[in-house]
């Protein structure tokens, strides 16, 4: 089965530093997502991205966050100035076209971000 | 408000025993319902989904789930649990855009 790849698997950073989390979605997919899971809490939607622009974002996704598809294969999440509360597991996901019964969201294995 | 509740944080069952993981949802429109499994160090793997039609849905690894609209529930079941089923299980609800709302998860431990 095709895979969404996320790098790194673990990232440790100092508070106030910028981090970039990287994702390689499945090659023919068109819709991209970031979710996060703070330890012991729910998996939460952050942002969806289609046709080189954000299609939807949650309240969590404030000005400190940005997403980019810099080339045809990568999809990145940048946090400009990390805070302690940004520590979480970040999941990237992708799917091929408009949702329907035959569509499936593929998740990566996540990047564990620790902000010290 | 849209939400998913998984009331059991942690469940332990014996290998070979039956399993039922509970999920209740609140969603304004017709829900699309999902169960995902996450093994340590792995991503979220889709077990099964309900979009419409037959309310009993079969998934991978011998799992099934039943959608009960009157109870706003989508419980996951397996008749005989294997040690390899030990993992965390997430119920999720969404609409056509696949923006998903997840529950807090249920951690399943399997005793030999």
Strand content of chain A: over 45%
Q: Count of helical segments of chain B? A: 0
According to DSSP, the number of beta strands of chain A is: 11
The end-to-end span of chain B amounts to: 41 Å
User: Poorly predicted ranges of chain A (pLDDT <50, ≥5 residues)?
Assistant: none
Overall shape of chain A: globular
The separation of the N and C termini of chain A measures: 36 Å
Q: Could you give a short account of the major beta sheet of chain B?
A: 6 strands, mixed
**Number of alpha- plus pi-helical segments of chain A:** 0
Secondary-structure element sequence of chain A? EEEEEEEEEEE
The secondary-structure class of chain B comes to mainly beta
Unreliable spans of chain B: none
Rg of chain B, nearest Å: 13 Å
Gyration radius from CA atoms of chain A, angstroms: 14 Å
Which range does the strand content of chain B fall in?
Answer: over 45%
Shape of chain B: globular
In terms of quaternary structure, the protein is heterodimer
SSE class of chain A: mainly beta
Number of strands of chain B: 12
Written description of the protein model:
The complex is a heterodimer of chains A (116) and B (112). By secondary structure, chain A is an all-beta fold. Chain A has strands at 5-7, 10-13, 19-24, 31-37, 43-50, 53-57, 65-68, 75-79, 88-95, 106-107, 111-115. The termini of chain A are far apart. Chain B has 112 residues and is mainly β. Chain B contains no helices and twelve strands. Chain B has strands at 3-5, 10-14, 19-21, 24-26, 32-38, 44-50, 56-58, 64-68, 73-78, 87-94, 100-102, 106-111. In chain B, strands 2, 5, 6, 10, 11 and 12 form a six-stranded mixed beta sheet that branches. A four-stranded antiparallel beta sheet of chain B has the order 3-9-8-7, with no helix packed on it. In chain B, β7 (56-58) and β8 (64-68) form a beta hairpin. Chain B is globular, with a radius of gyration of 13 Å. The A-B interface holds A 4, 6, 9, 31, 33, 35, 40-45, 48, 55-56, 91, 93, 95, 98-101, 103-105, 107-110 and B 4, 32, 36, 41-46, 49, 51-52, 90, 92, 94-105.
């Amino acid at each position: 089965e095709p895979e969404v790849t996320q790098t790194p698997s673990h990232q440790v950073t100092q508070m106030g530093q910028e981090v970039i989390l990287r994702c390689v979605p499945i090659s023919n997919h068109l819709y991209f997502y970031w979710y996060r899971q703070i330890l012991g809490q729910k998996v939460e939607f952050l942002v969806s991205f289609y046709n080189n622009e954000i299609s939807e974002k949650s309240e969590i996704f404030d000005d400190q966050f940005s997403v980019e598809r810099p080339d045809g294969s990568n999809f990145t999440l940048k946090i400009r100035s990390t805070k302690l509360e940004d520590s979480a597991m970040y999941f990237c996901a992708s799917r091929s076209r408009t949702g329907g019964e035959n569509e499936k969201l593929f998740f990566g294995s996540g990047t564990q971000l620790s902000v010290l | 408000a849209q939400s998913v509740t998984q009331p059991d944080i942690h469940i332990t069952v014996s290998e070979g025993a039956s399993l039922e993981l509970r999920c209740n949802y609140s969603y304004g429109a017709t829900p699309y319902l999902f169960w995902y499994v996450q093994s340590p160090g792995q991503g979220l793997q889709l077990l099964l989904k309900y979009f419409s039609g037959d309310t009993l849905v079969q998934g991978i690894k011998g799992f099934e789930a039943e959608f009960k609209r009157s109870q706003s529930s989508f419980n996951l079941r397996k008749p005989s649990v294997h040690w390899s089923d030990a993992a965390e299980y997430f119920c999720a609800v969404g609409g056509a855009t696949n923006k998903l709302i997840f529950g807090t998860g249920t951690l399943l431990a399997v005793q030999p």
